Amino acid sequence: MSRLARNVKDLMVVVDDLKELGIGILIVKGGYWTYNMGYMDIMMLSIEGGLAQAESMQTSERVKSHMGELAKKQLLGGDMFGYRLKKEVDRSKNTLVQEPTEAYVVRLVFEKYCSDDPDEALTSSSLCQYLIRNRHFNFEHDLNWTPSKVIRILNNTKYMGDQLPGKSEVVDTVRKKKVLTHKEPVRNRYDGEGRLIEGNLVKGNWEPIVSEDLWWKAYDRKKGRSRKGSEETRGLKSGRKVSGDAYARKMFCSCGYALSRQYVHVAKDGREAQYRYKCRWQIMKMSKYTQEATHLMGGVICENPAVSEMKVWLGGTCLSTCLRMAGLPS
Fold first, then answer.
1. Which residue, of 13, 32, 175, 256, is most buried by count of CB atoms within 10 Å of its CB?
2. pTM surpassing 0.85?
């Protein structure tokens, strides 16, 4: 039974769904025939399913504890911007090797961000423009730099030779649901005998790209500018929802991106609200950074204007009529 499911709910759903299709499952160990089970068989099968689920949960907790200890002994992760993973036969000896061109860009980002000269110091947005105009490629070997990519570089403790374990954790061992902990790094402090007093970083076996002082200077400067956790941003959620509009779920721009419905005019004096449909490329990528990077890389920039709701409705009505006249499903 444990080879069929390690979750009581999933087990019963599979058994019931297959039974509705006229399919039974023969479980040799235990002698269960799921197409025709009595109440005792259902009870015993549920008990075995519960034992299998408990075993899975116990294994997950054991692996979670082991991964926490493993993070203190060996490198977690693989290739990243500025480094390439060097594998060894003994995984505990895996290390990172600097990629010279990318390491130069990482060092440049930290130096420009932490510069004490007001004329040379750059924000994450200004750094995007600087990297694009000077043709410094990112990990995907293109110029699609965004402020969030720059911030991710500034947040990564591996650039100073340390790693931060526990940045994600499994909160539901049954569904294997993993969430980010948003754990903040704490600088290590030692007493006179070299014992750790405070800190949560683990020293790695690779060569750092930037010094600890420079990394923490960037961290302090970034924290001073951030509004994370403030009343204006706390509790807000991001992400695109599935549109409730039928046209927005089915229409696509000529560039290949979907069209999203946007609010244009409010409803008033008995008139209904007015909408338009705009290309998702323009919504997501019509920033000064993306335009400049796409232009330098010779990419295609979508310049299609938004389509009014009336034109979409008329076009859909005409198409539906033509399909019906041709005897095709609309």
1. 32
2. no
